[in-house]
Write the structure tokens for this entry.
Amino acid sequence: MARPEPGLTLVGGGRMGSALAGGWIKSGYEGPIAVFAPRPSDLVRSWENDGKIRLNPDSATASTLVIAVKPQIFPKILDELRTLVGPNTLVLSVMAGITLSSLADKLGTKRVARAMPNTPGLVGEGMTLLCLPEDAEDDDAAYLRELLTPLGAVEGPLGENQLSAATAISGCGPAYAFLLAEVMAAAGEARGLPRDLALRLAQKTVQGAGALMMESEDPPSTLRENVTSPGGVTKAALDVLMREGAMPSLMKEAVDAAIKRDRELSGD
Ligand SMILES: NC(=O)c1ccc[n+]([C@@H]2O[C@H](COP(=O)([O-])OP(=O)(O)OC[C@H]3O[C@@H](n4cnc5c(N)ncnc54)[C@H](OP(=O)(O)O)[C@@H]3O)[C@@H](O)[C@H]2O)c1
């Protein structure tokens, strides 16, 4: 199947939609991009002024339709969306919790896909999960991976049965990392460091550890062991964090709770 362009259409010009469209524009995407946004931001308007997008044009069948509105808006704009979907339209939803079968039923096409981005995608450092039906074309998967690269790394296609667990790691994961920085800073402050200093130390340490982890060929467990001398200071701290019932088992419990909630919200 030929690469589905031109006719790329984006519905929703909020944070995710803008991160995607901004990336497509930056990478010199050739085809015209239609953007539907009822209250476009200054950024979205500036793209229109520069001739990079067509803002709220007359509805026309999209070759690729990217839906980046909140899930609760989706049922309210179904009629508008259906006017954009033709027999060959490839639909990509970044809406959390709306299943492939629901997308297919409501939009009247089987050519649907889901992506689950995360917030670091807003600065191009995201981890986006791509999920397609089992019988999807390889070309569609490759094209959608490319389309999602403005957000950062892309994993998949994953089966939809893996999506809840994967979401509990990379979708929710930024919050776990922010919590880590938050509680590290609070612990430093509790032990006498000025609040701002404690926060700077925690933020840079989480960021630096992440950068080292991505540069290194070693897994995180080895990197952890590398900073843990027997009988040393780090070892004293890790003995607390890794004792029975502490961080490793708490993380499993947290991930289980996230999976359960994701399944409830998806109606599984
Ligand atoms: N942000 C994340 O990290 C993240 C992570 C995973 C998944 N997602 C998913 O990404 C989707 C978008 O999230 P977001 O963070 O970008 O939300 P957002 O910033 O609130 O953007 C949603 C956009 O949809 C627009 N919208 C509302 N009604 C519309 C309509 N009838 N036609 C076209 N656009 C309409 C809103 O416009 P107005 O402001 O004018 O109402 C808003 O700009 C959500 O479904 C969310 O589940 C986001």
